[in-house]
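User: We ran a pulldown and think these components assemble together. Before we commit to crystallization trials, I'd like a predicted model of the whole complex to look at. Sequences follow.
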Amino acid sequence: MADRVLVTLDGEVRDADAPLLHADDFGVLRGDGVFETLLVREGRARTVELHLARMAASAEAAGLPEPDRDEWRLAIELAVDQWGKDREGALRLVYTRGRETGGDPTAFLLVTPVAARVGAARRDGVSVVSLERGFSVDLASKAPWQLLGAKTLSYATNMAALRHAESLGADDVIFVSSEGCVLEGPRSTVVIARGRTLLTPPPAQGILPGTTQQALFEVADQHDFTARYETLRPADLVVADGVWLVSSVALAVRVHTLDGHPLDRRALVGEVEELVDLAVDTVD
Amino acid sequence: MADRVLVTLDGEVRDADAPLLHADDFGVLRGDGVFETLLVREGRARTVELHLARMAASAEAAGLPEPDRDEWRLAIELAVDQWGKDREGALRLVYTRGRETGGDPTAFLLVTPVAARVGAARRDGVSVVSLERGFSVDLASKAPWQLLGAKTLSYATNMAALRHAESLGADDVIFVSSEGCVLEGPRSTVVIARGRTLLTPPPAQGILPGTTQQALFEVADQHDFTARYETLRPADLVVADGVWLVSSVALAVRVHTLDGHPLDRRALVGEVEELVDLAVDTVD
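Assistant: Here's a predicted model for the assembly, 568 residues in total across the polymer chains.
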């Protein structure tokens, strides 16, 4: 089995160790494109339709041609088939504005092993620092050019925030708005439990809609949970009955420490993780 | 003469129409890298040392290994030599975190023809809309992970702002902070004249330090101008004796309209453009 699988949207399987992109691809010159990351488990990519819908929304926000979902579905099947059934993988869908010299957008799929940190996070949970994102919760509606609800390739500040957290001895980050509202992680959605109610901040507050959080919310009421969107402040996290960073590959990762404070209430820990597992098994 | 010149930092001249980058380069997967754009004119790259200094500062902010300036100087000479003396070019220096699988950073240089819009902007000036950047002028000092003073490859929102301006019938953008302070253009520094004083907002307000503006400020006092950094508001632009978007390739582009208001005071128009021309001839 190959260590990484690379497929282009035209359905060609490529050598992942051969160069693919031109030096003048807007994806690299300007981080100008969109992407998705899906979990591949037991030979199946998870929540494909939620990811394709979000990619289409991101593409629209970024002024890219609408992705052809049938083409992407076929290419996803091909990539997953090449990856096999025996191990988990992280499947990236990448869609850039293409070359500066013109032509079609660049579109490819890359499957790689799940990062080692993911296994540790799933098992042990994570410590998190809150960092200021610098803008107000109402910026997204006033300033569409900020692309706040789009998953673009311009992730340099997200990566810098994670390095900053690491320098403070923490594993991950929760961004807060200039008013002190909880937003999201650099690569995850924040979900908390208050009793059997699951809460996450409204995407309209400048947050990327979370595909895995959406899948969780879809199945919640069949399992005796209520789920809803609500403005959250850091204090809500401290008194919650559980705080998770929810994402496609790591799934539900428990936050055990926030800004140095242990989050001790654990009544629902384990149950929510299992429910996310179930959600990505059943929701497409 | 080649239509584009591609050189890698190891000193190899490459075919610009052959793929160079791997699908898992962090430059494309996350816009995780830094860049510079230099003007090539009469067989010489302009303000090379200012650009290399800024690239080093950007790399430090982004946690990339310090660029070897001697290596870059040699590669710049090679690229410019390949490009020739007979036409202007835009020389991009691109430096990414490299492949996800590890290894060295990715580093290459690309020379391309100057975009057609640049000629029109130099000749006719531009109309500009002010757009909210969404954060405060003091964010840069509080939140280094926002990389506000670094020229990273994560330029998707800058490109989206330019598309937004175009949809409003304008040529370019000036960003303002959440307090209403003038910041910068998506690819330029704002410089205004108040009498014979040239003013630009302080880089500490979350602005990329402008190499061409720095070169202009270096020569200003030899030409009977005073130059200094000062907080500016849109009203300061409306009553100024000239407003320019200053950048490496377009040089000084006069703003003739701001948010639909004609900027009529033109006493210094022409003189500042010539001074910027002179600055990039003489300052390294």
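Chain A has two domains: 5-114, 118-282. That may be worth checking against your pulldown data before setting up trials.

User: Thanks, that helps.
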